[in-house]
Design goal:
167 residues; alpha+beta; GIY-YIG endonuclease; 2 domains; three-stranded antiparallel beta sheet; 6 helices
């Protein structure tokens, strides 16, 4: 049988209200990854965590259940808390790692930047360095705007096809 999995909630430190339900095998690292990931995320959960951090607060992680059969258990808790109010979960649970379309686009940014940096190091061509800098600026602007739509439109015009099914 597999290892124990913790079904947890992220709660508001002020009200105790459940804002998100997830699963992990390592509670401490998972909370830290939510906090770190929020710095680059643009979703509602990320914005909520960012607002807490601005007030020198962080979400409170509460263990809801420990199980080896986590898929149905996570779904049960998400359904329960959706019935009680708004939570930030997009998926119904039981999927394992779920990556939003915007996070996939963010990942594309990172890959393009890394590739241009590698080409600059290999060739010494300053243009590659400039391209990487431009992509960094575009990524920063997309995060600030809360949308990667302009970046997607630009890539579509560059490659002449829609990326919708590729991201």
């Amino acid at each position: 049988m597999g290892e124990s999995v913790y079904i947890y909630s992220l709660n508001c430190p002020d009200t105790g209200e459940v804002k998100y339900v997830g699963k992990t095998i390592d509670r401490k690292n998972r909370l830290n990854s939510h906090i770190w990931g929020s710095k680059y995320g643009i979703g509602p959960k990320d914005k909520w965590i960012q607002s807490l951090l601005k007030d020198n607060k962080k979400p409170v992680m509460v263990t809801l259940e420990v199980t080896k059969e986590w898929e149905d258990c996570e779904k049960k808790w998400i359904k329960y808390y959706r019935g009680k109010g708004d939570i930030f979960n997009i998926a119904d649970g039981g999927l394992g790692l779920f990556v939003s379309p915007d996070m996939k686009k963010f990942s594309i940014f990172r890959k393009v930047i890394n590739r241009y940096n590698s080409l600059y190091k290999e060739t010494g061509n300053e243009n590659f360095k400039k391209y990487a800098e431009n992509f960094r600026k575009m990524r920063k602007q997309a995060i600030k705007n809360g949308s990667f739509d302009e970046f997607e439109d630009w890539l579509n015009s560059l490659f002449g096809r829609a990326m919708k099914n590729e991201t």
